[in-house]
């Protein structure tokens, strides 16, 4: 079955600095953060994780309500604008209030390490 | 003892991350084309968990969808053609049995929507050379920690179980 859709690479907001390998036009990403601001007019959400901020366009999302202070997960493609600011064009989003963010960040590191180990010693 | 464990994996729903699942090798033997191999260990069933990112529904035929677990996208197919498929009619000659299976598939299909987090179990199969999961059941996960707990399960099982099993003798 040829379902043509990319997996959203697991990243933290701090991984999305312009020098980061994840900061690429069209990159499919999965991000998580607390909603800091939401514009009903533009459908743009601003999410934060510590000191890091990312804008997320939610115009393609349906059946999702936004509440400042809640934690959201988004999967989508990164659009790098002329001013070199990235905005995630979300195609999937959900409220993840109650998530253990400390465990999430630790799990992310473990998962990356596991994938790297697997690439060095692939299943054959 | 270890050989017994290997044998039981044949019918175990093995928990694999998408990137690991999608790298399985299909048997070249015409005698057992339903087996897929990971480090020489034959597998036939899998459990995956992630976010539904794509849905293609053909009523009374099939539901195709993709599960993104942050390491890859697993193509899944849930057959909904129980009342029109001669193959399934032959396989389940008891109409009551067939109806129960059809109802279960319809219930699973109703759960699948974009953005949902789903735990999917099924048989590993392939279509046009690409690996997919032929779905037997779908459960929605409401715990926001479910995906990362699945990652941890998969990593633990790979490191402490699947990777250390000896391949069966050829």
UniProtKB/TrEMBL annotation, chain A:
Pfam family, one: Ten1_2
GO biological process: negative regulation of telomere maintenance via telomerase
GO molecular function: single-stranded DNA binding; telomerase inhibitor activity; telomeric DNA binding
Coiled coil start-end: none
A GO cellular component entry from the record: CST complex
Cited InterPro entries: NA-bd_OB-fold, Ten1_animal_plant
Protein's UniProt name: CST complex subunit TEN1
UniProt source species: Clitoria ternatea (Butterfly pea)
Top-level taxonomy: Eukaryota, Viridiplantae, Streptophyta, Embryophyta, Tracheophyta
UniProtKB/TrEMBL annotation, chain B:
Keywords, comma-separated and alphabetical: Chromosome, DNA-binding, Nucleus, Telomere
Location in the cell: Chromosome, Telomere; Nucleus
GO molecular function: DNA binding
Top-level taxon: Eukaryota
Main subcellular location of this protein, as a coarse class: nucleus
GO cellular component: chromosome, telomeric region; nucleus
Membrane-crossing segments per the record: none
Name of the protein this chain belongs to: CST complex subunit STN1
């Amino acid at each position: 079955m040829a379902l043509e859709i990319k997996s959203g690479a697991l990243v933290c907001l701090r991984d999305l600095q312009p020098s980061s390998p994840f900061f690429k036009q069209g990159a499919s990403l999965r991000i998580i953060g607390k909603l800091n601001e939401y514009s009903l007019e533009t459908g743009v959400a601003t999410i934060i994780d510590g000191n890091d901020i990312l804008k997320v366009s939610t115009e393609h999302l349906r059946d999702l309500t936004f509440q400042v202070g809640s934690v959201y997960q988004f999967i989508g493609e990164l659009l790098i604008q002329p001013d070199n600011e990235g905005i995630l064009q979300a195609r999937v989003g959900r409220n993840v209030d109650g998530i253990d963010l400390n465990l999430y960040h630790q799990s992310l590191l473990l998962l990356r390490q596991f994938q790297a180990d697997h690439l060095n010693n692939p299943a054959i | 003892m270890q050989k017994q464990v290997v044998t039981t994996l044949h019918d175990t729903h093995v928990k694999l991350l998408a990137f690991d699942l999608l790298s399985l090798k299909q048997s070249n033997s015409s005698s057992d084309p339903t087996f897929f191999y990971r480090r020489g260990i034959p597998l036939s069933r899998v459990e995956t968990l992630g976010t539904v990112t794509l849905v293609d529904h053909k009523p009374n035929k099939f539901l195709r969808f993709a599960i993104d677990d942050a390491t890859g996208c697993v193509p899944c197919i849930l057959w909904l053609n129980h009342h029109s498929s001669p193959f399934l009619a032959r396989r389940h000659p008891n109409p009551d049995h067939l109806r129960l299976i059809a109802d279960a598939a319809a219930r699973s299909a109703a759960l699948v929507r974009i953005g949902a987090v789903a735990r999917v179990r099924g048989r590993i199969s392939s279509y046009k050379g690409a690996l997919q999961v032929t779905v037997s059941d779908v459960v929605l996960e409401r715990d926001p920690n479910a995906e990362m707990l699945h990652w941890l399960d998969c990593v633990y099982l790979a490191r402490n179980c699947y990777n250390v099993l000896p391949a069966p003798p050829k």
